[in-house]
Each structure stands twice: as C-alpha cells, then as structure tokens.
TrEMBL record:
A GO MF term: chlorophyllase activity
Name of this protein: Chlorophyllase
Pfam families: Chlorophyllase
Signal peptide coordinates: none
Lineage of origin: Eukaryota, Viridiplantae, Streptophyta, Embryophyta, Tracheophyta
One annotated GO biological process: chlorophyll catabolic process
Protein's organism: Lithospermum erythrorhizon (Purple gromwell)
Amino acid sequence: MSHSIYNQLLMISIQDQNVGSIFPVLLFFHGFLVENAWYTQLLEHVSSHVYIIVAPQEVNQAAFISEWLIKGGLSSEPKMPKNVQADLTKVAVSGHSRGGKTAFALALGCQEAEAPPASSLKFSAVLGIDPVAGSSPSNRTDPKILKYIPRSFDLSTMPIAVIGTGLGNQKKGITPPLAPNGVNHAEFWNESKPPCYYFLAKEYGHCDMFNEDGPPWFVIHKICQTGSGPRDLMRRSLGGIVVAFLEAYLGGNKQNLQGIVDESLEAPIAIHPIISLDDATC
C-alpha cells in the first residue's frame, strides 16, 4: 500500500514498509491537457522500488517545483509519512509528451521568462517518455530546446533515457499525430549525448501508458492512435525500463539496465530498437 498526496501541484507516493529511510526522488511532468492522476499506475510501479515521486499537476510549474524541492518543500508536506526524507543528491527529472520536453528543458536550464532563477538543485538523470517539443519543427513550443544538431544537448555527462512509441507519429482520422516526426522521441534521441539509452515501444501509441480508469478512453481513441495490445503490459514495460535506468544512475546498480539492453531480460512487450551509447562508443 502506498501513501499518496493529490492537490493541484503534487502526487507523492512511497511504500509503507520503507518508512524511516532516505529516498531518491523522481520528478515527473504530465503531458499536454492531461492530469497527473492518469499516470498513477505507472508511477506507483516506480515508487514501489523505493523512490519518492513528485508529479506536479501543472507542467508550467516545473521551475517553481524545483525551487520548492531545494528549499525542503517535501519535509513540510503534512501527509508525508514520519521519518521519510528525500535525498536531493539523487534527483531524476522525467515526463511524458510535453512533460518530457519540460524535463529536458529543466535539466538544460532553459526556463520560461516568468520562472524563478535557476536553483541549486542538480539533477542526476533525465528521462523522456515519448517527449514532444511542438506540432512541427517550425512550430516548437518555448523554450525551443531542439537544435537539430546531433548530440547537441549540453548536459555534460548527465545520463539520458528516451522512450518512444511506434504509433505516436501516426494521425488518427483527421487528428494530426500527437508525437509528430521532427519534434518527437527520434529527435530527442538524436540530440542526446552519452551516456544515453533509447527504447522504442513499436506497437503502442502515445497515450497507451495512461491508467485504465483515468482518461476518457472513448475520446482518447478518437484522437490518438493506440496499440492493440494490453495497456497494462505497456505500463509494466515502461515502469521496468524507468526503474532499471534509475537503479543504474541513482542506485549504482546497472545489472537490470544492462539486461534490458542486451535483451537477456525480456520485456512484456516488443521493445525495438534498443540502443545504448557511452563515451567509448561515440
């Protein structure tokens, strides 16, 4: 069982049996026009591996939430279980769709004009789940972080993971693709520097990681190309990749991540291609 706090800013989930420990933190930003509560099944999978999840409801609050964390905001949450502490030396930033782009922008230090000055919070890793930077290369959202130059993200040696979907770049009826070519996972991967990892859930769509009971699926099916496979397998696969990546770079144990990369650990769904780049291979 997990503790969860929901308001207009946050969702925090940690496991009861680990009360009294210090936890790494995953900061997660939702996609455009969706709710953080639509991701709870995915995020609870991750939090069950002893991570504190902070999921602001408003993606535009990214820089403010970062500042709130560094000022000890979690410790002031009245519903935080006793003796639980956040390890702010181990914070990963992540997100889905527009939230994935927000995660990269925050890691890069690119902020909106109304945002507070960059805080001293240092991220240990960045992870984008089907990130999207706009509706087309000529209509990118601010801040415009894509430069269309290979390996151009200026993140020093910060580890990067990009997870894409195979159907996200396909339109549904008259609705344009939700993750169009030129501003989707492929370009984020192209601009990532090692150490970096790429995973493609080739038989699933842009919205297939949402909860079963979260969004109005009758609407989702009209605007988003979705996969024919079970969505719970998609969530399990994404959760497994996220956890393995966090274990590797926040926990120092690369065994499961390496198992996914060399395919000795088989995912519940088809993940192909899987690409890993380190400094030795670039």
